[in-house]
Amino acid sequence: KAAGTAAMALPVKLLKAGGRVEVDLDSHVASGVLSVPEDVRLQILRALFEHRWLQVGGRVSALAAPPLMRQALEQLFGAGSLFPTNEKGDVLQLLVSQGRRRPVDGQAAQPFGSDLFHHDNSFFQQPAFVTSLYLKQVVGEPMTTEFCDTTAAYEALSERDRAFVATLVANHGRFHGRDDGSLVQHPVVRVHPFTRSKTLYISRAYTKELVPQSDVANGAHTWTLERLVAHCEQPRFISAHAWQEPGEWVLWDNWALMHRSMSWAYGPESQRL
User: Fold this and answer.
1) Which of 6, 39, 54, 268 has its C-alpha lying 20 to 30 A from 98's C-alpha?
2) C-alpha span between 88 and 93 (Å, rounded)
3) What whole-number distance in Å separates Cα of residue 197 and Cα of residue 192?
């Protein structure tokens, strides 16, 4: 509450941008070193979890981005909280966005794996809490990342349906449509540790099956995995970010939002994130 009272006096600028929030960290960078005070950190976290999506304002050069990102993420979420994403242990892996399934016999490429809506790392017992993407290089046509608000999807359910889906757990696996590796279980309805909001934690990419934990209404409900995923993926719960210029950097709440690359719709290689 104290941090909230002082929010207007803080040097971080929270600006509404396309229905989302932009946070300006430029004033906290000196000689290539980022220093985020505790009150500013709390304000950023509060904005991130309230709005579920933040764009970092200003433009960081491609060469300076990785160290500044590491500093920012460690200061926001704690040293040791970052999950390496490649064999070198780099926190920010360079991802080449491309259709996972190339056109065959004149047919259009189809989405596959992480091109389907998903929560990052849901196949781990302790999945990612926040995801960060930075646009490093545009190669060809600018691309779009879509987001699906699974908190809003939960809130749109009737009280009766909320009670039913709360009795379910879901098995998650690393590869869509395959049984590679062991499965992990997460409740279908998760309570956000900061906002205390409830969200649906399932996806088309990584959720394998729903497992009832009790007999509710003698099985009268018909919430299958496909039906629940289709409910989440309704257009009213989906928004998009169109990547335009190198230096764009976004953070989002991986518990409350699913996301998917739209690379399959753009051809073999569109841009680098």
Assistant:
1) 54
2) 9
3) 5
And the tokens for 100? 């996972």
Q: Which two tokens stand for residue 157?
A: 């359910």
Please calculate the CA angle 204-205-207 and round it to the nearest 5 degrees: 70
Say what the pLDDT of residue 116 is.
Answer: 87
Give which of 146, 139, 144, 148 is closest to 243, Cα–Cα. 144
**Angle, CA 254 vertex, CA 91 and CA 64 arms, to 5°:** 30
The radius of gyration computed from the CA coordinates of the chain, to the nearest angstrom, equals 20
Mean pLDDT by 10 residues, the chain (273 residues): 37 55 77 82 88 76 60 80 54 41 55 77 88 76 85 96 93 69 90 94 92 60 88 94 82 93 57 49
Write the DSSP string, 125-161. Answer: SS--SEEEEE--EE-SS--EEEEEEHHHHHHTS-HHH
Sorted by sequence, the CB contacts under 8 Å of residue 128 that are 6+ apart come out as: 83, 119, 120, 121, 254
* Closest by Cα among 253, 222, 255, 250 to 154: 255
End-to-end CA distance of the chain: 36
- Whole-structure pTM value: 0.80
Report helix, strand or coil for 35: coil
